[in-house]
Amino acid sequence: MLRNDSSQPIINIKAHRQKPLITTIKGEIMNVQDRRRLLGPANAKPIVFTKPSKHATTKKTYCSISNMYIKTGLIKNCNGSSYLELVLEDGSKFLLITSVYGPKPIRGSFVSKAAVSVHINSDTNEIATTGNILSNDFDVMFQNDEETLKDLSGYLKNCFDSTIQLEKYPKSGIDIFVNVVSSSNLQVSTPFFLKQSINGILSALIDANIEVSDLIGSGVSNNNCITTFIKNGQEIVGFWKMDDDEAEDYAASVAEVVEVCKQDYFANKKVLRQFLEQE
Fold it and tell me: SS3 letters for the chain?
């Protein structure tokens, strides 16, 4: 504290240092905190979220092309599912539901790749010994042919064993279930059923995010023969013929049938590609 000759205090320096206040022109105390760290860039814009539509779904999972309709993700308690509806030339409908469970861990010894199993529901539609699938809407019930069911399941399993990247899912199981909902009182051939089953299984696998090496597809010839292709028709992974060909040149006959199936395969593949593009 400083004093003059009359021993009177002039200014209290200590008190002045304890209150370092900065005042504005109007005499109000100004906050000296630096607010620049709390502010965003000058050209920043607030985030605006659009309101979802009432009819909007989580993903676009349907395809309505030509006479085929495919929708995935209908079954919630499985990893992937597909619903396939096909309108035939006479206006009748063929309905197929496919579900995929897996990849899921399996017990037992370690395996280096996934094990695929295919199950066809024989309770919805009966398969007669003639090799045709008959809708249960018929008044007459046909006895199930377990051997035919086993052969059909084996055909589908072999086809997808060549397509699914099994080595990416070690010690895992992938269970596929195929259910024919209705065939509108129409007798459907086995090759036709296998072709549509492959379409349904492929769609369900994609819905389950299971990796496949190629876009598998099939073609049918004369409604009694099916050939399943991969690699744009360059490789055959399945062949099924209903009747025995007694032609003298059997190899040439099969070659002609395969070529017809390949043309049908390309047409079917085009539809599947459009479905994948819409997903």
Answer: CCECCCCCECCCHHHHHHCCCCECCCCCECCCCCCHHHCCCCCCCCCCCCCCCCCCCCCCCEEEECCEEEEECCCCCCCEEEEEEEECCCCCEEEEEEEEEEEEECCCCCCCCCEEEEEECCCCEEECCCCCEEECCCCCCCCCCHHHHHHHHHHHHHHHHCCECHHHCCCEEEEEEEEEEECCCCCECHHHHHHHHHHHHHHHHHHCCCCECCCCEEEEECCCEEEEEECCCCEEEEEEECCCCCCCCHHHHHHHHHHHHHHHHHHHHHHHHHHHHHC
Q: Is the pLDDT confidence value at 52 over 70? A: no
Mean pLDDT taken over the chain? 77
Q: Quote the crossing angle between the two packed helices 190-207 and 146-161, to the nearest 10°.
A: 50
Contact 83, 71 (CB under 8 A): yes
**What is the identity of the amino acid at 187?**
Q
User: Is the pLDDT reported for residue 37 higher than 90?
Assistant: no
The whole-angstrom separation of Cα 82 and Cα 85 is 10
Strand partners, 242: none
Question: What per-residue confidence (pLDDT) applies to 144?
Answer: 54
pLDDT of residue 87: 84
Q: Shortest CA distance to 213 belongs to which of 260, 171, 160?
A: 160
Query: What is the predicted pLDDT for the residue at 39?
Result: 66
Q: What is the pLDDT of residues 176-212, one digit of tens each?
A: 999 988 766 556 788 999 999 999 999 999 999 999 9
